[in-house]
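Input record, target 12 of the design panel.
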C-alpha cells in the first residue's frame, strides 16, 4: 500500500512540473496608486485638485517622489509660442523660475513644469 501512495505522489509531482507556472502580478507602488498615474515619470492632469494642475511620480534610480506642479487654470505658452504675448509670457516665466540652470533634477517640480506646461 505504501508503494502505491509513493507512486501517486510521484505522478502528482510530475504533473505539477509539466504545468506552466502562473506569473505573479507585481505589486504597484502605493505612490502610483495614490496619485492615479499609470507609471513612473508619466504626468497626469488633475482638474479636481484645489491648487495644482498636474501630478507625476518621478523616479531616478531607486528614489521615487510624488510631485504636484503647475498652477490650476493657467495654460503655458507651449513649446513654440506664436504671438508676441505668449513669447513674453514664456520669457517671463523662465526668468522667474531660474531657467538658466540647464539640468534641473527630475525630482523637481520645475523640471516637470518646463517639460509639460512650457
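The sequence produced for target 12 reads:
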Amino acid at each position: 500500500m505504501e508503494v502505491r501512495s509513493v507512486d501517486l505522489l510521484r505522478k502528482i509531482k510530475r504533473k505539477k512540473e509539466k504545468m506552466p507556472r502562473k506569473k505573479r502580478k507585481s505589486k504597484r507602488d502605493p505612490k502610483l496608486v495614490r496619485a492615479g498615474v499609470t507609471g513612473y515619470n508619466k504626468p497626469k492632469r488633475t482638474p479636481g485638485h484645489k491648487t495644482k494642475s498636474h501630478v507625476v511620480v518621478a523616479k531616478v534610480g531607486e528614489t521615487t517622489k510624488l510631485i504636484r506642479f503647475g498652477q490650476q487654470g493657467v495654460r503655458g505658452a507651449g513649446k513654440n509660442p506664436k504671438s508676441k504675448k505668449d513669447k513674453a509670457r514664456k520669457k517671463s516665466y523662465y526668468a522667474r523660475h531660474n531657467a538658466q540652470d540647464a539640468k534641473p533634477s527630475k525630482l523637481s517640480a520645475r523640471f516637470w513644469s518646463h517639460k509639460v506646461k512650457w
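The longest strand covers residues 52-60.
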